[in-house]
Request: fold
Amino acid sequence: MSDKAKVVLSDYVWESLDVERRILGEVAELTALQTKSPDQFIAAAADCDALLNTYAGPITAEVMAKMPKCRIIARYGIGVDTIDLDAATAAGIIVTNNPTYCIEEVAEHAMALVLACARKIAFYDRMVRAGRWEVPPGKPLFRLAGSTLGLVGFGNIARQVAVRAAAFGMRVLFFDPYVKGGPFEGGAAATDLKAMLATADIVSLHPPLTAQTRKMFNDELLACMKPSAYLVNCSRGPVIDTEALVRALDGRKIAGCALDTTDPEPLPEPHALRGRDNVIINPHVAWYSEQAMVGLQAGAPSEVRRVLTGQWPLNVVNKAVKGRNRAGL
Reply:
């Protein structure tokens, strides 16, 4: 019988687990699964020492109670909205994330969607594919230089978007109640949310998904935007009230939107957001690049290794668990 720790991987979206086995091989046996919810992985995870997690959730207090030996839940991505952090702290389970692996990728993707909205790239591409070669159907178009980008949330990714937008000559405003001081990246200026929405030509969303931000962009906030403005979302789909967004598009309250994340995800077929000329939808791909994959795949298992070898991990989300966790750290 092995004296190594047991690590369960609930789900993953890459081809090989060589990275995980290389990082954990000396200290743990890896049980790799492909599940979508805790009821599918809990039987294997009931005696685990650590849980590696990508999307399968939600991981609630009830789920944690069924993993009495689990010392750490390590998420491969940035967001931890699928994990009950208070319950994890109460249970003495360390929760980690991977906050830096795709900052450049998401910032670049957000800027690409800003450009696609401004220049109607996807619209013209679809038109040419359908056999039409005309400029007028896409009018009006406006130059980015001199226009205003509004950022909701001003964390690591949004700050990199600000730098890129400034390089295009855009004026950058942001709303983030947790950010004080300055000067800020890209010459960005802090402002009131509704005032920013009334001014911005393009609004890009970058808040974490919390109880406060879930369906934050509802009828009221969408009505604050200019009818000529576009909404870009590379954060979390549920930050937008999908039904309110459909109403805003139907009522021409906004000019259009570009979404890398949606609610629900994936969007069913048919859906009211599909098939619109002024809507761009991507399949939650902003995080991805070959370089980002390296950082993504190594991050979570490295945190697990740290805990299993008696070290405090680098990216703890529920910091209050320090000194009161199952790992004794």
In short: The chain has two domains: 5-101+290-321, 103-281. The two ends are 27 Å apart (CA to CA).
